[in-house]
Each structure stands twice: as C-alpha cells, then as structure tokens.
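Supplementary notes for students who missed Thursday's class. We covered one full example, reproduced here. Read the sequence, then the structure, then the short commentary at the end.
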Amino acid sequence: MKLDSRTLPRSAPAWAAVAVAAVVAACATTTSPTGRRQYVGAVSQAQLDQLGAQAFAEAKAKQKLSTDARQNAYVRCVADAITRQLPAGWQRTWEVAVFADPSANAFALPGGKIGVNTGIFTVAKTQDQLAAVIAHEVGHVVSRHHDERITRQQGASTLLGLGSALLGSAYGSTAGDAAGQLGGVAAQTLFLLPNSRQQESEADVVGQQLAAQAGFDPRQAVNLWQNMIAAGGSRPPQWLSTHPDPQARLQELGARAGSLMPTYEQARAAGRTPKCG
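Structure (token representation):
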C-alpha cells in the first residue's frame, strides 16, 4: 500500500515538527580534540558526571574488587600519570577501581572514573602497554564520546518513535511495532555503530598522545594490540563491529607512534619518567 498525505493522520505534520524540534534542540555543535565536528548536548556535563558516578558505584557494588595492593598501586600510578596530562577542564582526582575479573577489559566514565579488570594484565604486559589501555579509555571521556552517543541515540529514538506512531495511526499497531523494530535495527547498524568505530579511532589518537605526554612509550600501543589480537578469538565482520579492523589499527598506531617520539622524548627530558611497575 502506498503511503501518501491522504493516508497519514491529520496531526502527523504537527508530530513531525515537534519531533524534529526536539532533536535539533537537544544538539549543539562542538569540535573534538582531533578537529572532528560533533553533535552533543542531550544532557549537561553535570548530568553526565552524575550518570558516570552512578554507573561506577553500581559496578563496584556488583563486581568483586581486587584486594591485591600491588595491583591497585600499579594501576593507580599509571592512571595518575595519564590524567595529570589532561587539559585544565578535565583535571581532577580520578577514582580508580581494579576489578577481579579475568576478561581483558577497562573503561573510563564521565565524572573522573576509571575501571580496570585484572584480566587486562594478560595482554598489557608492561606499564607502557597498560598506559595505552588507560589513556585510550580516558580519551573517550575527554573527547565527549559519551555525550555524543547519548545525543545521537536520543535523536534516533525520537525519529524512530515518530515513524512508528505515524504508521501505527495509519495502518494499526502491528505495522507501527514492526516499523519500530526494523527501524531500530537500521539505525543501530547504519547510524550508531559507524559512529562507534569513529570514536574508537579517535580515542586511539587522543590516548596515544596522552601516553606520550605522560612519558610512556607510544610504540608500546602497537605491542598491546598485537597481544590483544593474539589473545582474541573470532570477531564479527568489520562492517558490524564497533571497533576498527585490527590490522588497520596496528598500522595507524605504528605510524602515529613515530610522529609522537619527539613528544615522548621531551616528556622524559622534562622528568616525566613513570616507574609504576
């Protein structure tokens, strides 16, 4: 059945105007640390910090924390060296937690929160490699990737909800539900996931630079990802992945490391010589 203005409910233009206005109002344009144009602003920085603190508290409540004093001191040392190099607006005392979890993972959240699983030590075998992990995760925060994701998802949800409502009014709830489900898959695959790949690449750039500024060898980011690839199993096709292709990532990290060697050498000459473990 063809969908035209005669089959749509009369209130459809008003709904469309409200939905589009809501999406536009939620967005503000800014520039990321790499010069990329971003749409942010669905939530305030204070709200982001609160959400980050809440998520971090829940993670600590639900997951077992490492009681190994050496591990905790090691991660704290690396995290402190990294966060001391952040721009003034991001300077704070970052809270660090080490989780007794065998999966090789780490994360950072708005509000100054860093979480590291003990499993990361199986692939991050040196302090420089651990710095590459932590700096990458902190790079997501300072690049406002959480804000960007929330803003994009809110916009996609608003527009998808509008489409479902219009079809539901015209053809019944079944059509509306189906449209919402199919639209959600399309948005996730074609709109939201590509943005995640872009964010991962940007966090690589920002993180590798932070590590070099802190006095960690930027070349070790390459070794880290080689270890990750060796330890990893099967992975989804690149077009459906939120991470860049591993081999392409290695090439980019290697090329960037060469250009960051002067930054690393200047940091060492200035006395930034971390001795974390």
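Commentary. The beta strands are 28-31, 37-40, 95-99, 106-109, 113-117. Residues 27-269 form one domain. If anything here is unclear, bring it to office hours.
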